Amino acid sequence: MVKLVMTEEETMLADMARGFLDGAAPVGKLREMRDAGMTHDAALWKEMADMGWAGVLVPEAAGGSDMGFAAANVIAREMGKTLAVSPFLSTAVIAATALRQVSDTRATAALAKIASGDVTYALAVDESVKFDPDAVQMQAKRDGNGFRLSGKKQFVVDGSLADRVLVLARTDNGLTLFDIPADRAGVSREASSMIDARDAARITFENVEATGEDVLGAVDSAMDVLKPALNAGQAALAAEMTGLSAGAFGMTVDYLKERKQFGVEIGRFQALQHRAAHLWCEIEVTSSAILNAGRMLDEEPDNAEMAVSLAKARATNTAILAVQEGVQMHGGIGMTDAFDMGFYMKRARVGAEWLGDYSYHAEVVAKHRGF
Amino acid sequence: MTMTAGSTESPTESFRAELRGWLEENCPEEMRDGGLTEDAICWGGKDWVFTSEAQELWLKRCAAKGYTVPTWPVEYGGAGLSREQEKVFDEEMARINARSPLESFGIWMLGPALLHFGTHEQKLHYLPPVARGEVRWCQGYSEPGAGSDLANVQTKGEDKGDHWLVNGQKIWTSYADKADWIFALIRTDKDAPKHKGISFLLCSMEQAGVETRPIKMISGVSPFCETFFTDAVIPKEQIVGEENKGWDVAKYLLTHEREMISGGGAGLSGGGRALGAVLADTMDVLDANTRADAMRCEVDALAIGLTLERYKDQSEAGQGAGDASAMLKYMGTELNKQRHELMMNAGGSDALEWDGPLGNRAGDWLRTKANSIEGGTSEVMLSIVSRRVLGLPG
After folding, report:
1. Catalytic: B53?
2. CATH at B80
3. Among A268-277, B83-92, B318-327, B330-339, the least confident range
């Protein structure tokens, strides 16, 4: 019985995040980075770490701010509004959550480095065009006390620049999650030229050596560690996409109020009013699913799967609608590179795919609902 | 949670334990089927004929505890539950698949309006009989010339000192032929601007000069009526709120009506059974298209359900929900229409028979077509959002 209302702390966090991002990471910043061929800004990430964002899910004992999943969603949502570029989801949400499932000194040390902003991570799961962890084929063969990893991963978000990679591979009796440095011998990374101007990579593993130390959690039991991390990542990505929807929507409504055709503001036309109003309704409904997912992850993590998939499914459809309506209602200018809406559209499409598309998550919801 | 002797339970959890025991003891077995069909509903009222002894017993037992209107104050027939307790109540009722003991427009619409605008005496007089299911109310809002333009009501009340003399016609007065009383919008000042000359009046359906006639609908039944006022006398004390300020009451009530209608779409009424499961009743194997459509509806229904909960939580926390009811009404009713299209599809030719193998599925399907019209059309809802939320020029 979670309470679906923003706490005062969350409202303050959102206000603070908005203030910071409007100044330090507006959409114009993404444009500058794209034009300069940059996909990571280390100084910006350090600033975010100093505000406690990198350690949002890191225990205080390891130097984190430990604000919880709902708070991580609040930050992700604000980042979505301005399309802020950062390894927040890969590192602060997914990797930190995975590491938190393991209580050894190595994991604690890794969490401390995440919190201070001194290490970044990427999650390497996908081997085909769709997200499907259960179908992973990459092999980690037993080799003495350790393993040899061979295979190819694609759509490794933040993968070309991350310091470390969490790799999902098949072992004798199941799947195992490895945490290895990206510069280990046999790892070759090829940066993908992504439509959203963000970092992603294709990574080839050729007989890469891994020791028992590199296994995160237990051998053959990757999901014990990875499942909570995926839940957290999917929820935060859904939050980011809902922020993205709100950002695109805000620009669109502003435009309806100022653009004149036939001698009046186009926002006077009922055809456009109703489209805008419908979009607002969709964003409101999706926002409830986001809030619920964060609350469930914080309060009932073992029962959170459906809430997370509901959030990601809704967020995906809402974002796709928001950017399409955004372009359509802006008309020709919405199609130009000089205008920001295109950045929203491209990021929405990438977010739609990452960590499971609409169908993947709707399927999870349907299974929970018994059909 | 684990309970050990001497542990301190939260007040919410001790309420849950107490309620669970009460339900176990008091909810008749026959009332634990979720009550999904129209004839499972107990509407109450002076002329109500209970469909079973269990239905009567269930109503009486709930009414005695205030559980027909759990959040109303105890003195007006409720149980005075907090929002937290209400959630527990809903969860525990759903857990045993209990039917709602009583449904009525008195509960959904008049009650909230009276609680907000009524005098203490009016609340004491009108609300307990609603809570006990003894008086059934209907709504006199729309007129032949006042549909989406609701404030254009022409039914007029002439001031005769201690009463109004009312003449005019209302339409879409749901179940007026079965109701004991009507709450109606009456024009009491014909010279004022249209929103400012309306009063919210209460009138007995047995009052001389009040007549009602059912309208046969496409679903084959007549839940809606026309109601005529011909020199009907309504005493002055039967006004809610101030004279000529009935539009405020009307709007407030409409927000509750809209939330009520949207709840149906979210599948929250009727135990929240998954659409896929409902479809599987008639299709052993859901074909890929039907299943995909059902998944989409289910995702949307769950998210709309969460939104209803969120707004209730926000309003309890004192955070204004703005014009949320228009949004919920629009989203919920459009979804409900889609759900029923899917149910017709899944039923195939069996669904095409009146009272065939699938009961009244066709009638239910046709009934949902009114959802996006009654209580304000989808287009009116979108215009409200556009103006009041988005601030687009009117």
Report:
1. no
2. 1.10.540.10
3. B318-327
